[in-house]
Specification:
The structure is a single chain. The chain is an all-alpha fold. The protein has one domain. It is about 70% helix and about 0% strand. The protein is built from three helices and no strands. The model has no long low-confidence stretch (mean pLDDT about 75).
């Protein structure tokens, strides 16, 4: 049970981070900067279903270019899910 609680806490923290990043990207987009939406890195797909996938994402987003693509993808996905 403790592992599930820890996992949930990590997911909540990552969710908050992604929300903040999404707000930054959206602000840039509204300021007239183009979003860099390209293919996601190989092996990365959403939703993330395991701790290993979350750890893999953490490693990938250390690269600013990949981080930008992931955030842009999530923004685009969230936009279409809202409709």
């Amino acid at each position: 049970m403790r592992i599930l609680t820890t996992l949930l806490e990590e997911i909540k923290a990552q969710n908050q981070t992604l929300i903040l990043l999404a707000q930054q990207v959206l602000s840039r987009s509204l300021a007239g900067q183009e979003l860099d939406i390209g293919p996601l890195p190989e092996g990365l797909q959403f939703p993330l279903c395991s701790m290993a996938e979350i750890e893999h994402l953490n490693i990938l987003v250390e690269d600013p270019d990949i981080k930008s693509k992931v955030v842009s993808f999530l923004l685009l996905f969230a936009h279409f899910k809202a409709f």
